[in-house]
Amino acid sequence: MTTQNTPVLPDISCWHVQTLRVTAFPSPSATISQPKWWSELLGTEPEVRNLRPARGELIEKGPFDKGTLTLQVFPLRIDWNLTVIPEAHLDDPDMPHLGSLPETGEKFIKLMSDWLSNASAPRLQRLAFGAVLNQAVGSPEEGYHLLAKYLPEIRLSPESTDFLYQINRPGKSAVPSSEGRSINRLSKWSCVAMHRTIVQYFPDGTPSTSPVGVASYACNLELDISTPGDFKEDLPQQTLAQILQEQYNFGIDIALRGDIA
């Protein structure tokens, strides 16, 4: 039951996705040589492919859902990023986004779970889920009023400016074979503004920018949910997809309930 002192927060679907990310840190024993993860997962070839075999680097890029999916492979880190296509939102008065968190997030997590469950997936020592979310508001004052509901322990007023709040509230994993292990739950809260501009160049090449229309405002939430960096063993291969799903669920809980220990 909602009490008088408990703020009523917006539905989880009010959080819109700007970016989603899965970061994997391979085990020192993992061997990665020109992986075919993109074609195995998506059934197509990427639109862009940059390979540097001598450096063990690979970048692949192409469309997925409503955005651009990018795979970056480095010797010590693998990143999958789903990002918005700004050109597709030129007529949208609000900040560009990929859709609601539940809708877009579930598609992305399903794809990443398929990758982690694939026999060709590398052995990992660390796994992380990240997101950049925004919730449109009409003004900075409205944004800080909304942020105050998500951050009940922080005193905020509508006149606040330049506010940035970051905190890690570690939780415990309930995934079999990882039960009781720490999970970092890092969240960063702020209010942001977007101004559309036109860039023009003088004959000497000097750029000049001019604002167009009115600014858009939003509450911004950045998430970084990860297994601890000091864990030096391999994560259980058979539960990697479950670990990622748990991290995503932690992110959903923060976006739904705010900064609650």
What is the gist of this entry?
By secondary structure, the protein is α+β, with helices and mostly antiparallel strands. Helices cover 20% and strands 38% of the residues. It contains four helices and ten strands; from the N terminus they run βαββββαβαββββα.
Largest sheet: 10 strands, antiparallel
Strand content range: 35-45%
Shape: globular
Q: How many β-strand stretches?
A: 10
Low-confidence stretches: none
State mean pLDDT (0 to 100 scale): 89
Amount of helix: 10-25%
How far is the first residue's CA from the last residue's CA?
20 Å
Q: What would you call the structural class? A: alpha+beta
DSSP helix count? 4
Q: Which radius of gyration do the C-alpha atoms yield?
A: 20 Å
Number of separate structural domains: 1
Helix/strand order: EHEEEEHEHEEEEH
Task: Describe, in plain words, how this protein is organized in 3D.
The protein is α+β, with helices and mostly antiparallel strands and 261 residues long. It has one domain (15-257). Helices cover 20% and strands 38% of the residues. The protein has 4 helices and 10 strands. The chain has helices spanning 37-42, 101-117, 140-150, 240-257; strands spanning 16-26, 48-52, 57-64, 67-74, 77-83, 124-137, 164-168, 171-172, 182-201, 207-226. Strands 1, 2, 3, 4, 5, 6, 7, 8, 9 and 10 form a 10-stranded antiparallel β-sheet that branches. It is globular, with a radius of gyration of 20 Å. The model has no long low-confidence stretch (mean pLDDT 89).
